[in-house]
Every structure is written in C-alpha cells, then in structure tokens.
Design goal:
Layout: E1 4-6, E2 13-15, E3 20-26, E4 33-41, E5 44-53, E6 65-66, E7 71-74, E8 86-92, E9 98-100, H1 102-109
Antiparallel strand pairs: 1-8, 2-7, 3-4, 3-6, 4-5, 5-8, 8-9
C-alpha cells in the first residue's frame, strides 16, 4: 500500500494539494477512478494521486491546469476498495516515480 487513506463521508469533495496540471486520468484497475496531477515543488517534479473517486465526479481532463484547492472530484469506492474513501499518494519524479509516505511529505512541504 503506497498511500494514505482518508475516510470522509461518501461524495466528499477532493481538492488539489498544489498548482500543477493533470497528467493522468483513468478508471479501472486497483485504483478505480484515478487522477494524477504533476507539480513542480522546490524545483522537483512531484505527482499527487487521487484514487477511488466517484465515477463522473471530475470535470477535468489531461492537460488541464490546476490551482491549489481546485475541486478534483468526489470520494467514492471504485476499483479495489471496501468503501468510500480517498486513496492519496505522492510520487517523486512523476507518474512512475518513487512512492513516499504522503503524510510525512505533506507535513514537510506544505503550510
């Protein structure tokens, strides 16, 4: 398990953690409906991953610019999931980059 699960109520809004652009949007597989956003943080490429989202809850497309706090989608239970939640990951170096503990990364890199 490469991420952190957050368990707000079903259909809770999900927000982008930083400015960037949508680098991947797909559905199917273990992560279900998933969006990945590329950011440049302290000069490094960082990808944030938002998974198990509710089908049809995002209006974004690959290439769209994102601002911190923008609505990404809603929590759901798609893919390999036992209930509605957000599976959140941080990958250093892009989509196929190194997985790191997302909570430690957030505490070290956000206000």
């Amino acid at each position: 398990h490469h991420g952190q699960d957050f368990n707000p109520q079903n259909e809770a809004p999900i927000q982008a953690i930083a400015d960037g652009h949508v680098s991947y949007l797909g559905s199917g597989g273990d992560l279900g409906v998933v969006m990945m956003i590329d950011h440049i943080i302290h000069g490094d490429l960082v990808t944030s991953v938002y998974a198990h989202m509710q089908r049809g809850s995002t209006k974004m497309n690959v290439g769209d610019e994102v601002t911190v706090g923008d609505f990404v989608g809603r929590t759901g239970s798609t893919g390999m999931s036992t209930g509605p939640h957000l599976h959140f990951e941080i990958r250093l170096g892009g989509i196929n980059g190194k997985h790191v503990d997302p909570l430690k990364w957030l505490f070290a890199n956000t206000n």
